[in-house]
Amino acid sequence: MKKFDLKILGVGIIFLALINLSCQRDDICPEATALTPLLRISFFDIENPEISKPPTNLRVKAADFDSILLNRVNVSEIEIPLKTDVDFTEYEFILNAPATTEDSTANSNTDKIRFTYARNEIYINRACSFKVNYIDLKAFPQPNSEDSLRWIKNIVVEEENIENETNTHIFIYH
Amino acid sequence: MKQTLISLFTISIFFLLNFWSANSQTNLDTIQYKEKYGLRLGIDLSKPLKTLLEDDYRGLEIIGDYRVYKNYYLAAEIGNEELAITEQNISATAKGSYIKLGADYNAYDNWAGMENVIFVGMRYAFSTFSHTLEEYNVSTRSQFFPPNIIEGPFETKGLTASWVELVAGLKVELLNNIFLGANVQLKRRITQTTPSNFDNLAIPGFNRTYDESLFGVGYSYTISYLIPLYKKAKN
After folding, report:
1. pLDDT tens-digit map of B175-218
2. Of A60, A90, B62, B190, whose CB count within 10 A is highest?
């Protein structure tokens, strides 16, 4: 009788050990976790700096490749990613972007801005890995045409350190 | 999942204790029978097996216990492990040695002439190890730029950790003085040093860690040999 009980118990313990072996918590990075923050830009009227002013049909694309991040949006606030592998990111901000490449009636105006920063890698957890916070953010309008043709009149860095997406980091006046 | 494990573990301990108290009420014979006392040495079979089967694991553990008094045993494990942890966005390796010291209590009342063990025990464990960040992916919500995967290895040496373990298991005498056993361990971390701006994803002897918890789990399948030193009457 005792010998029999011992066997049952043995099976039970081996079973427990197998559960141990096969079940590990699946580690998924929760949606709510703050990852690498995006750069938040707000657009204001140069004539009336308190009033936000959405640029018309704004297209935002990376300067060094063809993908378009935002196309023909009319919003006064945008969020754009910065590169995490180098200390700068260049974007083209295209005002009055044409709907098609053939459309020449749109009076489009391209301004290029180079954002520079230092990167600070921060460990989050095993599921979310590392994020990058940016420090010492600067924005430089890139020369592409005459200054008088620029639609962006002024750029103000409001937050030098990009650690979250709750604050606007850059004000653009146009 | 972890909570389920902990509750299963606790239930199994209650089961063991019940089992023991139920058996202790029966007194089957009055013949004096001498029991073996001695040093039992062996290895954890699961570690060499995992070393063979899994590419990213290497480990060996030597186990031992010494019967001090009736159902009480001094117990120790000493081992060396290399554990790889691969998550979706990060991979790391922990490499090092550990020692566990403690005692076991045999809760099983054997039939005359049998020397099986169903035990619960406690250990204090200490590990020294290195932790290597092999590769990670910088986490972004935006998929606009290609993923930034950073390859190491970035090794941090001289890390330590300590923890306590609750162990429950059995050792069955298959042949004369040769025991086959299995046990499960619930571990609770007391101290650890971590790499700067990183965490220990695994600790040798502790197994993988959990981000929000100090607990860990483990199991062993053991084979051991009892070196009988002397015999003593059961009562």
Report:
1. 999 999 999 999 999 999 999 999 999 999 999 998 888 899 99
2. A60
How many Cβ pairs within 8 Å bridge chains A and B? 123
Q: A50 in contact with B at a CB cutoff of 8 Å?
A: no
Query: Is residue A105 a part of any domain in this protein?
Result: yes
Region B157-185: what's the mean pLDDT? 94
Whether residue A2 is contained in a domain is answered as: no
pLDDT band at A13 (very low <50, low <70, confident <90, very high): low
Distance from CA of A47 to the nearest CA of B (A): 33
Side-chain-facing half-sphere of B88: CA atoms under 13 Å: 11
The owner of tokens 């020294």 is B128
Across the interface, of A3, A27, A131, the residue whose CB is closest to B138 is A131
Helices in chain B by DSSP H: which ranges? 2-24, 46-53
Q: Could you tell me the pTM of the whole model?
A: 0.78
Q: Do B23 and A2 touch (CB under 8 A)?
A: yes
- Domains annotated on chain B, with CATH: 2-23+36-230 (2.40.160.20)
- Judge whether A65 is closer than 8 Å to chain B, CB to CB: no
Residue B3, chain A, CB below 8 Å: the answer is no
Name the residue with tokens 């991040």.
A69
